[in-house]
Structure to design on (511 residues):
């Protein structure tokens, strides 16, 4: 018996007039019609119906956005503004966006297909908290002094001198963001880049461009200086043009490791700094003494959250052999209770994937794993019949057993609601399995022995580890990022702000 796919009606209403943003480019503080001939159709993943179209930016538009950003960065009106002035501008932006929260929620649910109860917190509430954090972080002093030193001079007066270290913005930041949490990802790049004094050209995913355009509306209303924030919509060619342009001083990208590697190669000839937040194949370690009901809830959440479309989600469940049967039973029961349906239904626990191609990719991974000898504990198919809208992009929450850690389904990022469960007998084996991955973004350890769990967490080669579910919320003050093919650099916190600045040492002679 698979997950409960309840009969739910299409409760997502047509978006009211004025809810969707203006579909133009935002360049130099003004809205501009695109010069490109093409356009991108934005779909509602829950129904497959078109929400609207956005224009493809052409080469002239990319050049105009970079010219505007370059002028804003070089003129100094933003970079040379006081930290307090930049902070006040970001607080204005936060205030405007907070007033738009209901509209943001309508739009982000429509373009991502994220269930309403998850979207309220993760897709809207969390980005607003992040932006407020960056508004305050912008007040950080740019200059720190080292202690002055008196240097004795033989036969002459002593010299008093010292050093000051100044943090300065890079200049122009090209920000390229994914479709899964569009408003959050946009803010995670826009916030620290602007707080540090940079100008930004944002290129959102063509699947979810509306969140970025709403940000542009808010920037206009908040009266951010012209050219400080620009938005270009379009396909991959727009991103490629940005990553290859010599006017860009820093590239910040979130997405697949394959595209991340291509961006690194494009930036290498100019030695342009690149920040990468890429994929993951995170492990959830369930020790023999774990609270198995808690472990099953966490395991199920890592399968179903936004239909598995999250880079940090743990899709390899490594479970001690002594508790493996009980964990599997609890995990299956938990997933069987999940309602797969349209995002606006309050009962929905998991919505659709972003596009039909994503469903095909997930199905292909599962089918190959089954051919290789895996067993389907639950799921493994698209919802049948009329349980969800026929045109929507749905796949049932799926758990595979009998999988080896070397199989593609256990090594490749699927970005869908699929997890594999693998048993282990010793902690050393568990750590070896967890670390035997091309990725190193996140991880989980579940054990009633907190000290033991902490020691295991320290042995995992990942950027973050949750112990017994972690603190229960995402803190923008804590650095986030990965190792190996999970990326370069860190987002959030003082460390994330540092990524958008360069250090200048000023040496002075006081007398």
């Amino acid at each position: 018996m698979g997950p409960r796919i309840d009969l739910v009606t299409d409760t997502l209403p047509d978006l009211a007039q004025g809810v969707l943003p203006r579909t133009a480019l935002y360049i130099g503080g003004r809205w501009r019609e695109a010069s490109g001939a093409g356009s991108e159709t934005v779909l509602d993943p829950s129904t497959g119906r078109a929400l609207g179209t956005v224009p493809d930016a052409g080469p002239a538009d990319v050049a105009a956005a970079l010219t505007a950003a370059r002028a804003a960065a070089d003129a100094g009106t933003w970079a040379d503004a006081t930290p307090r002035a930049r902070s006040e501008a970001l607080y204005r932006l936060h205030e405007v966006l907070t007033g738009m929260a209901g509209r943001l929620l309508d739009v982000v649910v429509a373009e991502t297909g994220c269930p309403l109860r998850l979207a309220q917190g993760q897709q809207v509430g969390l980005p607003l908290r992040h932006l407020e954090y960056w508004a305050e972080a912008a007040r950080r002093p740019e200059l720190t002094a080292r202690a002055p030193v008196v240097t004795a001079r033989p036969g002459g007066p002593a010299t008093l001198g010292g050093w000051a270290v100044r943090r300065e913005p890079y200049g122009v930041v090209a920000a390229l963001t994914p479709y899964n949490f569009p408003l959050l990802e946009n803010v995670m790049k826009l916030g620290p880049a602007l707080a540090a004094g940079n100008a930004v050209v944002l290129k959102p995913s063509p699947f979810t461009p509306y969140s970025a355009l709403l940000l542009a509306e808010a920037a206009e209303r908040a009266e951010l200086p012209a050219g400080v924030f620009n938005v270009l919509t379009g396909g991959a060619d727009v991103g490629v043009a940005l990553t290859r342009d010599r006017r860009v001083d820093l590239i910040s990208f979130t997405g697949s490791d394959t595209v991340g590697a291509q961006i690194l190669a494009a930036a290498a000839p100019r030695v342009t700094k690149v920040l990468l937040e890429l994929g993951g194949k995170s492990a959830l370690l369930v020790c023999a003494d774990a609270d198995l009901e808690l472990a099953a809830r966490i395991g199920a959440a890592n399968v179903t959250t936004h239909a598995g479309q999250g880079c940090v989600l743990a899709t390899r469940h490594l479970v001690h052999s002594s508790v493996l049967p009980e964990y599997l039973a609890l995990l299956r029961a938990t997933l069987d209770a999940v309602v797969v349906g349209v995002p606006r239904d309050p009962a929905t626990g998991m919505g659709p994937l972003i596009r039909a191609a994503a469903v095909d990719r997930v199905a292909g991974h599962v089918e190959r794993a089954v051919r290789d000898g895996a067993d389907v504990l639950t799921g493994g198919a698209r919802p049948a019949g009329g349980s969800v809208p026929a045109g929507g992009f749905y796949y049932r929450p799926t758990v595979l057993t009998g999988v080896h850690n070397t199989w593609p389904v256990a090594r490749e990022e699927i970005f869908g609601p699929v997890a594999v469960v693998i048993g282990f007998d010793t902690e050393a084996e568990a750590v070896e399995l967890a670390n035997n991955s091309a990725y190193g973004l996140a991880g989980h350890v579940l054990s009633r022995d907190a000290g033991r769990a902490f020691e295991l967490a320290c042995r995992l080669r990942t950027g973050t580890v949750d112990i017994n579910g972690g603190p229960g919320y995402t803190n923008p003050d804590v650095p986030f990022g990965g190792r190996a093919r999970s990326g370069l650099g860190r987002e959030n916190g003082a460390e994330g702000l540092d990524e958008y600045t360069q250090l200048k040492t000023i040496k002075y002679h006081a007398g």
User: Anything to note?
Assistant: The chain has two domains: 25-278+488-508, 282-475. The chain is about 35% helix and 20% strand. The longest strand covers residues 156-169. Residues 25-278+488-508 form a domain with the Aldehyde Dehydrogenase; Chain A, domain 1 fold (CATH 3.40.605.10).
